[in-house]
Amino acid sequence: MKFALIYIFRCGFLDGRAGFAYANLQAIYEYMIVIKTRELENDEGGKNKSERADYGHRANPDSAGSL
Would you say residue 59 lies in a domain? Predict the structure, then answer.
């Protein structure tokens, strides 16, 4: 879809090979964004609370100093 938008509707074909390459690269970039977004959505949906990373937040702040 992005390729058609750039190459046809925005007259990328007038730029020749450079217009084709630009439209193609933009389409690939857009596709990668969609893939990464779906990957992140699936990763978050598949994990439960115990499997998610805590990233420094402690459940009990009193136990922070004791080992």
Answer: no
